[in-house]
Amino acid sequence: SRGIPLLLLLGLWLEAAGVAESPLPAVVLAILARNAEHSLPHYLGALERLDYPRARMALWCATDHNVDNTTEMLQEWLAAVGDDYAAVVWRPEGEPRFYPDEESPKHWTKERHQFLMELKQEALTFARDWGAHYILFADTDNILTNNQTLRLLMGQGLPVVAPMLDSQTYYSNFWCGITPQGYYRRTAEYFPTKNRQRRGCFRVPMVHSTFLVSLRAEGADQLAFYPPHPNYTWPFDDIIVFAYACQAAGISVHVCNEHRYGYLNVPVKSHQGLEDERVNFIHLILEALVDGPPMQASAHVTRPSKRASKLGFDEVFVISLARRPDRRERMLASLWEMEISGRVVDAVDGRMLNSSAIRSLGVDLLPGYQDPYSGRTLTKGEVGCFLSHYSIWEEVVARGLSQVLVFEDDVRFESNFRGRLERLMEDVEAEKLPWDLIYLGRKQVNPEKEAAVEGLPGLVVAGYSYWTLAYALSLAGARKLLASQPLRRMLPVDEFLPIMFDQHPNEQYKAHFWPRDLVAFSARPLLAAPTHYAGDAEWLSDTETSSPWDDDSGRLISWSGSQKTLRSPRLDMAGSSGHSLQPLLPREQRRRLLAGTADPIRPGHHLGHGPSALWTCLLSGETTQRWIPFPNGLTAKEQDFQNP
C-alpha cells in the first residue's frame, strides 16, 4: 500500500535524527510567550536545569503581541542553547503589539484565545509530526524548580498529567470540579489536594498552565486545541477547550502532588497591567526563597537592571547572626529582588555571652520578669537580640538619622511589600502624622481593641504586640527608647516596646519605665510576617531555645516554642502571611471606599474571584456565590481564589 513507503521514510528520518535508537522518550517543550520579560529568565533557567538529555528534546517557541523585550530575550537564549536541542522551531511575530479590542495587555479577548489555541495546536501538530512521545506545555510564569519533573511525570504512565504547582494564594493549575456548562465547581477535595494533606496522583476534570501529554496514549490522536470539538458549547477558553477534548476522547486527566515541582504566578485581572504582574512575580520569587527550592535565573539572558534604594529612609538595617549565613543570604536576596538597599548589622550572638560579660555591659534583669507563657527567665538569646536592636537605636541617635527601617533576618514579605510601604509612608507624610515607631510585622494580642487612624486606612494605633521582625523608627523614637535606660532593667525587646507606648498589660513591669510616651502605630494589613512558626518543621529560634541569661553551664532551656512564636489563629485582615495580593488603590479611592461614597465595584467588572476581589466584596458587603460563572471577558486564567 502507499502507506508503507511513507512509514518507512518516516522511520528512516527519525532514525537519522537519533529519535528511534535512544531508549529515552522524545519530548517537545512548547514555549508560548507574551510580555514575559519579568519571568522569562527564571522560566528558561528552570528549563535548562531539567534532568533530561537535550538531544532528546525539541523546542517549539512562539511569541507575539509584545510591548516588552520578550522576543529579544528568547532570541538571546535560543542563540546560546538552541544547538544543544534536537530541533528548534522559532515562531516570532513582531507586529501587531496589541489585539484590536483589548483593554490592556492582560485582557483576554476572544481573538486572543483563538490565536493561543491555534498556536498550541501548531505545537501539538509539530510534536506528532516530529515523532515525539510527549509534549510539555508550560506557561512562561510557571517555574519548574524540580529538575526531575519530566522524569517523574513520565514515570506515572498517564496520558495527561500535571505537576501541582504552588502559588502565593489558593490558586493552582488544576480544577477538582467542573459544572456541566464548563465552569469551575467547588469541591471538598480541592484544598486537601492543594495543601498536600492528601498526596498522590488524582483524577481531575482539568489541568492547565503546565502539563504533560503522552502522544502515544490510546485516544491521544483525538486531542486538539483548535478547532474545538464539533459538539463544544463550553466557554471559549483554551484550557476548557482542551479539558472538553480529553473528556470527549475518553482520556483521563491527573494532577500529581507527591513532590514539590515548582511555582506558578497568580494571574492578574484584565484591568491590571504588566507592572502588577511583575510585582506578583517578585513576590513569588520571595516565597520560593523562603519555602524552597529557590528559583535560579538563566545565565544566557540579559535581565533588566535593578536600581536599589532606601525608599526614603536614611538606612535600612538587617539584623543577622553571622552563624546563620543562609538566613542572611536569603534576606539580602529578597531585598535585592525588591530593589531595596539594605545594610547588614551583625547580631550580638547570645551563645557568645557569659554572665560576667552581660553584667559588664551594664545589663541586669528587670525585677520579677518571667515569660508570659512558660514562666522562664530571660535567655541569653533574648539578651543578644535586645543588644542588637539597641545598637541600631544608638546609631540612629549618634548619626541623627531622621527615620530608618529595621528588619530581622527571618522576615517573610507580603505581596508588593515595597509598593505598599511607599504608599503608607506617603500617606503618613501627607497627613503630617507624628510618629516614633511603625510596626510592619508583629503578632497582635488584642487586635479588636486597636483604633484606626483617621485619614489613614492602612494604619492603626498599636496595641500590645509580640515580635520585632520589621519596623520603622524615627529619630525621636530612638531617643525615647535610649532615654529609658532599658539595659539596667532588661526584658525581651518585644516586651519592652509595648511598655514604652504604654500598652503592656503588666503594671509592675511598666512601673520601672517613665515616661511611656512612644508614639507607636502599625501597618494594617501587616506587610511582613515570620518565615516560620513554632511547630513548623523549619522553625528555628535563637532566643526561645537558649540558655538562661545568668547561667554559664551551657544548659539550654527545654522549650519547644513559646506561645509568642505560634501561628496566630487570627488574620490581620488579609495580611500576616495570608499571602494576600491586594489591589493598591489610589489614596482618594481608598478614602471613598472606606467612607462608603465610592462607586460600587461588582463582580461583573472583571475583578475575578481572587483575594483582591474578595477584599472588594467585603468592603461593599457583597459575597461570592456557590457557583462561580465567568462574566464576559473574565476567564479561567483569572481564577486566583478557588473556594472549597
Shape: elongated
Query: Ranges with pLDDT <50 over ≥5 residues?
Result: 1-15, 571-580, 589-644
User: How many β-strands, per DSSP?
Assistant: 22
Provide the domain count: 3
What class would the helix/strand composition place it in? alpha/beta
End-to-end CA span: 57 Å
At CATH level 2, the architecture of the largest domain is Alpha-Beta Complex
Numbering strands along the chain, what is their spatial order in the largest sheet? 3-2-1-4-10-6-11-8
Average pLDDT value?
85
What's the gyration radius in Å?
A: 28 Å
* CATH topology heading of the largest domain: Spore Coat Polysaccharide Biosynthesis Protein SpsA, Chain A
Describe this structure in words.
Helix 8 (274-291) runs antiparallel to helix 9 (325-337) and helix 11 crosses helix 13 (475-483). With 644 residues, the chain is α/β, with parallel strands linked by helices. The longest helix has 21 residues, at 110-130. Residues 1-15, 571-580 and 589-644 have low confidence and may be disordered. Helix 3 links the parallel strand 2 and strand 3. It is built from 17 helices and 22 strands. Keywords: Endoplasmic reticulum, Glycoprotein, Signal. It holds the Pfam family Glyco_transf_25. Belongs to the glycosyltransferase 25 family.
